Amino acid sequence: MSEVRLIPFEVDEVVEQSQEVVPTGVELIEAPDIWKAAEKGKGVVVAVIDTGCESDHPDLKGRVIDGKNFTTDYGQDESNYEDNNGHGTHVCGTIAANADKKGVVGVAPEASILALKALTEEGSGQFKWIIDAINYAVDWKGPQNQKVGVISMSLGGPQDVPELHDAIKRAVENNISVVCAAGNEGDGRNETPETSYPGDYNEVVQVGAVDMTRNLAPFSNSNDEIDLVAPGVNVLSTFIGGRYAKLSGTSMATPHVSGAIALLINESNKRFERTLTEPEIYAQLVKHTVTCGYPASGEGNGIVALGIVQKIDDIIKRLTPGGGQSFPNKVRV
Description:
Layout: E1 4-6, E2 10-15, H1 24-28, H2 35-38, E3 45-50, E4 64-69, H3 73-76, H4 87-96, E5 112-117, E6 124-125, H5 127-139, E7 148-153, E8 155-156, H6 162-173, E9 177-181, E10 205-210, E11 228-231, E12 235-239, E13 243-248, H7 250-272, H8 278-287, E14 289-290, H9 296-299, E15 303-304, H10 308-319
Parallel strand pairs: 3-5, 3-7, 4-5, 7-9, 9-10, 10-11
Antiparallel strand pairs: 1-6, 1-8, 2-13, 12-13, 14-15
Helix pairs in contact: 4-7, 5-6, 7-8
């Protein structure tokens, strides 16, 4: 089997500090609109399979609750999952950077990160490392008996590996949402498909990229398995060395969706007064999207818009005599 690599990404800018509290991408997907109802993702564990995470970054302190190194970095020390590339720390910040009125804030700022280092400093790794990391995430239990709710993977390759597919199917069967980057091999034409694995597996949530004005990024892969899009151009987040950086790529769109699912798990479970299954959470995710005006091969169901359901509900209530509840307290998929 060939190696799997980071989905190609571009470092646009690295800065020592950030004055921006809520990044534009977090605002664009309307994450703050449901922070209260979703308790900012508190208690939800997101397994980030990447280059590791700088766990002592000022904006990530307390967010990383555990991790493991599956690579040959650090002399194969399994306990050292620190990021020596930058990509994984950037992803983790978009998901769960602390809401501490400084630096940046993530989509789900009280979610927990399980940092699984399956890619080396060079951004490459063996398929076995990825597979082992997925299985580890499925079996992992935290100190308070927590389980992983979301797996986030901003990586990929051209090869369909059956063992990788089996590991992903096992995760989904265990009610874990698996979110993957679509890839950056796009040619700007939605009618010509580009595929990358594991993103192309039907069981995953495959994420394409748009810019901050909801225009489809020309590098974003198009294919018939795209589920939705999220901000992936000039995305500001945490970076190694206690710094911040703006990066571009579907790698940056993916954690927006991973964080959104963390919020929806809390919000939906509370609203329906039970634990929703992975297909039901996916249905809720799709319900919280709006089209950007592109073909489904480019944008899937559209861009994440976490406040859209409440906005529609408010409008219907104003138009309904008595202001009754417009959405039944049931989920159908």
